[in-house]
Design a protein that fits this description.
This protein has 90 residues and is an all-alpha fold. Helix 1 packs antiparallel against helix 2.
Length: 90
Amino acid sequence: MSETSASSEKAEFNRLWWHSRRGMLELDNLLIPFMEEAFRDLEADDQARYKKLLTCEDNDMFEWFMQRSRPADPDLQRMVDIILKRVQPD
């Protein structure tokens, strides 16, 4: 990996890390550790799904993670499931 590529990848990770800070403690407690501990291990498609999740409203994400509702978009539901499974293993 070239130095420029590594620098670009680090910048993208940092940008996503900051976007994962939502200002709602419950979401921060899920998303920040997920970014730090699991994001890099995701397949490219799931990383794209995570980026898509970050475009959603905090209130919607809170409802999904509290399992009060489900996203209509299957990509978003997959990402919610991945994050929930990480914090609530079988």
